[in-house]
Amino acid sequence: MLNPISFFTRLISERLPRLRFVKIGLPLLIVFSAIGVVGLLKATKPEVKARPVVEKQWSVSVIEAQPADIRPRRRFYGEITAGREAELRAEVRGRVVAVNEKFIDGGVVSRGDLLVSFDPFDYAAEVSEREAEWVEAKARLSELKADFEGAVVLLKRDKEQSRLRARDVARRAKLIKRKNVSEKNFDDSKLALSEARQRVTERTKTIAKLKANIESQEATIKKRDVALQRARRDFANTKLFSPFDGFLTGVGTAVGRYVSIGDRVARLIEAGRLEVKFQVGNRQFGRLSKSSDIVGKSVRVFWRGGASETFDATIARVESVVDAATGGVNLFARLNGLDRRTKLRPGIFVEVSLEDRPYLNVVQLPETALHDDTIYVIKNNRLQARKVKLASRLGDEVLVSGKIERGDLIVTTSFNEIGPGLRVTVP
Known about the structure:
With 427 residues, the chain is of the alpha+beta class.
């Protein structure tokens, strides 16, 4: 068996020279190799030339400034409302005996259309009775007037007779002094005069009584006439007609139903008097009405439901109070040229376009061109800042005023690095 100690002793003695080389020669070899590589790299290193600094150019879009007096159109949202409507109510009590086929919710009717008929029997009978009473009263008045006229004629005769009797008495009074007539004859003439005067007195009383009777009868006739007219009105009200062209809603009766006076049978919205209710801010309202009365201004109305349609309208009135919730003012514009064929109905939402007062010497720009209170124009391919005043906003556009010259190229491109002095180019 091999002795371990002897084995390792022999191994070391055999490899010791090799180990010394590795320990000492290898590091030296590495150092010299590195020196050679460095030298080689220096000898073959290319010459580096300095590059010139290139300034960045920004590509931007521009708009040419065209200062002008601009009268923009403002857009608002509104709602169709009923400009005029009528509550159709029963003016008589009774049973409904007939209705128009159009007498339904949504029914379109014309002025004068018979909508509802109530049982007319009792009202026709009332008219007949009142007519008979009126005719009777008129006949009695005619009798009284005839009596009055006759009495007037008789009174005139009686007065003439009294005048003649008075002359006869005076004549006989002279004769009796000369003893040319008897006392009895003179007394007879005085008696005849007294009787004539009595007839005048009685006839005058009769005429006065007849006159009073005539006045009373005339008053009776007036009462009978009022009663007759009331009966005729009630009879006429057994038929309910449409007062204007419009749309029915809230229909609340049918054939066979009994109604009382004042019961609502339907509501009628006039087709030709539809309005648009829309609201403008307090500031905007003040601007619109500053130079002239806003009532009478023309507006355009856009309905986007179904096929888009445009309507002309005129501002008819301004609500009396400001909306407490929004601080705005409600305006009402009457739609022009509508009739019962229109498809518009109360409750439909629409857009309203209203022409504003002019803004003087302003430029209209995309909103992207405005940076707070600054715009940028191009001078010698570089940006130049201009302070401006915002006059108004128009959707995604703005109206600005300031030191802007006609033909200035105003940058409409917005980017974070934008600022004065930047070099730009326009595609």
